[in-house]
Specification:
This protein is an alpha+beta fold. The chain is built from 22 helices and 21 strands. Bound molecules: 6-diazenyl-5-OXO-L-norleucine. The site of 6-diazenyl-5-OXO-L-norleucine (DON) has 12 residues, from strand 5.
């Protein structure tokens, strides 16, 4: 095995806090003596004991490395958790538990102890368990099984890996203890196939060539729910990753597992080649490579580095990071914060009075048992004095199975309550896909009102309140009913009617487009329209900034500054509206100045009202 010793690999950019820390840590720990390279596999004894590399990979594929992080070495027992995951993936929990347990032995990795009561090795991290797991590799021929094993490790590293034939041959020639274990297992049918064939695969898996960077990516794959952060390839189901991390946590460091859990607190696995991987779920995978190992088979420098990193960055699994209360982003009522639907003065008056009956509860972050309990307790409080409660999931990025169960139960019980529950922003194909699926499986879930965003949900609830208050949000045909013309005399109304152009648009029609010249402004007589703007720097993505109903105007900027259209206006349904030409209005006002004065003062009042309300909303939402 020829080695190319690399310089301390620190890529210095202006802002490199982690690289800087790793460089300091590497320099400090490289002075730590003690231990010796394993030599019970002679080929391993030939390694340069001063090799020392550290690599950290994040769940989104960022790799930090220092020292000999690119020097190849054989994976040895660090292969075991991944082979265990593969067995779970292909044989399921029950199938694997029949063949290997999950109990720590408290013994050395190559101890010849078997769980005779259950007739299986104690766990898949000790050699006996790993041999049983090796027999579970898929493939009808040994060649296929070896190929499948290499495919597994290559997909975990995100690049093609090979086997160090010299180390393999060396272990094959000296692996008598493992042979003894395998034959004892054959003796009690813990394995069925020829032990030499099973060991052949086991020795080959231990002899796969990797680097510390490869192993950091593999560890980050476990931190990333089984999905390779580099290739985004799903290798293990999240449920099996949990099993792998659990067994790594209790058995991965053999008879040092207790102290490791105490000092470092991350699921880990060591290999006699001098490598250790550690996993912080949801965050990072770490690998340290330094050949000198202690009597328990763990890298001396590897242990120190992981202790330091865990303490420095609070990575211990039992450092409580989840603040369930943070799931409640805020809640408010529709008397103070309304939808983007522009309302007539009459409607606004009703909503200011009745709006408290609509509550909006914004959730955020991760929904799991604790946070969902918080969310539903707040829902219950709001439902006591609300007619409608909207839960907005826009800022929720995951909901686990327990959250889905609790929410489905809440939907079921709310279906019997006086308050109507409305959900917003839970798209079927997004991070809450599991929740939408769970809801769709229940009758109540089917009946539950769901809107693409909180604004649309709020608009619907407002419409219900207004309809309930007898406010006719329907059609406004006569000029005198329309706010913009309030105060005009009947003669002046007739003058305005003389220049009005009735226009009909079908659902989806673009009535006006952002950037177009503005010659007309519009009064809506029937139906509703949406006002949308392009979201800057997000390609074609659009944001609905307002929706307008009968009796209100749009495009009135044309009247005020004559500038280009500042947004698209799209018909939400078949709409009837009146177009008023700016030029015609000016000509008419030349003889009847009170028309323009009235229209402009109504517009100004409307705008100042909107501004006041916007300030109120900001004061509530900030
Ligand atoms: O079976 C063996 O003994 C080696 N191939 C692997 C052992 C190992 O890596 C133990 N880990 N600390």
């Amino acid at each position: 095995m020829d080695l190319v010793r690399g310089p301390a690999e620190v890529r210095h950019t202006a802002l490199a806090p982690i690289e800087d820390y790793l460089a300091e840590l590497h320099a400090r720990v490289s002075k730590l003596e003690g231990g010796a390279p394993a030599d019970y596999i002679p080929e391993l004894g030939k390694v340069d004991p001063n090799l020392f590399g550290i690599a950290i990979a994040t769940v989104d594929g960022q790799l930090y490395s220092v020292g000999d992080a690119h020097i190849p070495f054989t994976i040895q027992s660090v292969s075991k958790p991944f082979m265990y995951g593969y067995a779970l993936q292909h044989h399921g929990r029950a199938g694997v538990l029949k063949r290997v347990g999950v109990e720590p032995t408290g013994e050395a990795f190559n101890s010849i102890v078997l769980d005779e009561a259950a007739n299986r090795p104690f766990n898949p991290m000790v050699n006996a368990g790993a041999i049983a797991v090796a027999e579970m590799m898929q493939g009808d021929t040994q060649k296929q099984r070896i190929a499948n094993m290499l495919v597994l490790f290559s997909s975990l590293a995100g690049r093609d890996l090979d086997i160090d034939e010299a180390v393999f041959a060396s272990e094959l020639a000296t692996g008598h203890r493992n042979r003894a274990i395998a034959y004892m297992m054959l003796n009690t049918a813990m394995i069925e196939r020829d032990p030499n064939e099973v060991l052949d695969l086991y020795f080959r898996q231990c002899s796969v060539n990797v680097t510390a960077s490869d192993l950091a990516i593999m560890a980050a794959t476990l931190a990333n729910d089984g999905r390779n952060p580099l290739t985004d390839h799903a290798i293990f189901d999240a449920q099996y990753v949990r099993d792998m991390l659990t067994v790594m946590n209790s058995c991965g460091m053999y008879d040092y597992a207790g102290e490791w859990a105490y000092e470092v607190g991350m699921p880990a696995k060591s290999g006699v080649s001098g490598c250790i991987i550690a996993v912080n779920p949801g965050q990072i995978g770490i690998c340290v490579y330094a050949p000198p190992i202690d009597t328990q088979g763990n890298s001396v420098r590897g242990i120190r580095v992981c202790q330091e990193i865990s303490n420095e960055f609070q990575l211990h699994a039992f450092n409580n990071r989840t603040n369930v209360r943070s799931v409640l982003r805020r809640d408010y009522r529709a008397d103070l914060v309304r939808s983007n639907r522009l309302r007539t003065l009459e409607e606004r008056t009703i909503l200011t009075k009745e709006g408290r009956k609509i509550s909006v509860l914004e959730a955020q972050g991760a929904l799991f048992f604790g946070s969902t309990e918080q969310l539903l307790r707040r829902l219950a409080q709001l439902a006591q004095d609300s007619k409608y409660v909207i839960i907005d999931f826009k800022r929720v990025h995951m909901a686990d199975a327990s959250a889905c169960k609790l929410i489905v139960r809440a939907v079921r019980s709310m279906a019997k309550s006086s308050a109507e529950l409305v959900f917003a922003s839970i798209a079927g194909d997004g991070p809450l896909e599991r929740l939408t699926r769970a809801l769709a499986e229940t009758e109540e879930g089917h009946r539950l009102r769901q809107y693409r965003d909180a604004d649309a949900a709020l608009e619907w609830c407002e419409d219900q309140l207004l309809a309930g208050a007898g406010s006719s949000v329907g059609t406004k045909f006569s000029v005198s009913e329309i706010n913009l013309f309030k105060g005009l005399t009947p003669d002046e109304c007739r003058l305005v009617e003389s220049i009005i152009r009735p226009l009909v648009f079908d659902k989806g029609d673009v009535i006006m487009r952002e950037g177009d010249p503005a010659k007309l402004f519009f009064v809506l007589a029937r139906g509703t329209v949406s006002v949308e703007i392009k979201v800057h720097g997000k390609g074609e993505r659009r944001k609905r900034v307002a929706s307008i109903g009968p009796g209100l105007t749009f495009g009135e900027m044309a009247l005020l500054d004559g500038g280009k259209r500042s947004a698209d206006v799209i018909a939400n349904e078949r709409v009837i509206c009146y177009g008023l030409g700016v030029e015609e209005l000016h000509e008419l006002s030349a003889d009847h100045p009170n028309v323009m004065i009235t229209i402009l003062s109504n517009l100004t009042r409307e705008f100042s009202e909107r501004l006041r309300h916007a300030n109120e909303e900001i004061s509530v939402l900030e």
